[in-house]
Amino acid sequence: MSKTELVEFIAAKAGLTKADATRALDATMEGITTGLKKEGKVTLVGFGTFTAKKRAAREGINPLTKAPLKIPAKVVTGFKAGSKLKDALN
To answer: Measuring CA to CA, which residue among 87, 81, 76 is closest to residue 43?
Structure first.
């Protein structure tokens, strides 16, 4: 499902205009991003938990040249589905 399709679904389900649904979706995504930056975790009970995890720097190998290279540290996002989402998908 694309963002446009999701906006149309939200608008139909909640009785909103597409513009209002777009603003609501954008605000939700901004809230999740802000929560991950500040606290490193956003929990939506029943749906799931978004987490921000620090990945340490490490050594890697270039598969073409077999030369060693350094992979820098970075923050990656994770998601663990909640019980209601898991049940809905089964």
So the answer is: 81
Angle, helices 18-39 vs 3-14, to 10°: value is 110
* CA gap 86, 75 in Å, rounded: 26
User: What pTM was computed for the model?
Assistant: 0.79
Q: Can you give the pLDDT at residue 5?
A: 97
DSSP letter for each residue of 52-84: EEEE--EEEE-TTT--EEEEPPEEEEEEEE-HH
* In contact, 42 and 35? CB cutoff 8 Å: yes
Cβ partners under 8 Å of residue 55, min gap 6: 73, 74, 75, 76
